[in-house]
Amino acid sequence: MTTQGVGEPRWNWPLAPRPRVERPFDRPDTAWAPGHRGIDLAAPQGATVFAVDDGLVTHVGVIAGRGTVSIRHVSGIHSTYEPIDATVRVGESVTRGQALGLMASARSHCPSGCLHLGAKRGDTYLDPLLLLTVPRIVLMTPVPD
């Protein structure tokens, strides 16, 4: 298992080099409401997709015609990657940065293709970008009276 230092993101990027975010996270108001339950990262077909952190592969399959992989991480967060031609199997332990497969060809709303990366803890969708970046902390100083 890897350890995280102060000022480091919790997750590694699933693509190299660091991709452009094509579509950000948009938390749905309810479980069935519209929204975008992850982020879309610019990626060409055939690009290698990497595990964002150590974990256990809990799903490899096809959902809505797209290859998908899900990983349960020690933190309790599940990451999901699609579309992907997986090279891993359910029950396999993976390490941060390990190849999971290749970007599959799939119709996409992104101009040149994109990887959808999702994050979920229990029934709550999380913004993966917050796990991939170091948050900028701004301390507010009180305004004198």
From TrEMBL:
The keyword Electron transport does not apply. Keywords: Signal. The keyword Signal applies. Residues 35-128 form the M23ase beta-sheet core domain. GO terms for molecular function: metalloendopeptidase activity. This is M23ase beta-sheet core domain-containing protein. It comes from Phycicoccus elongatus Lp2.
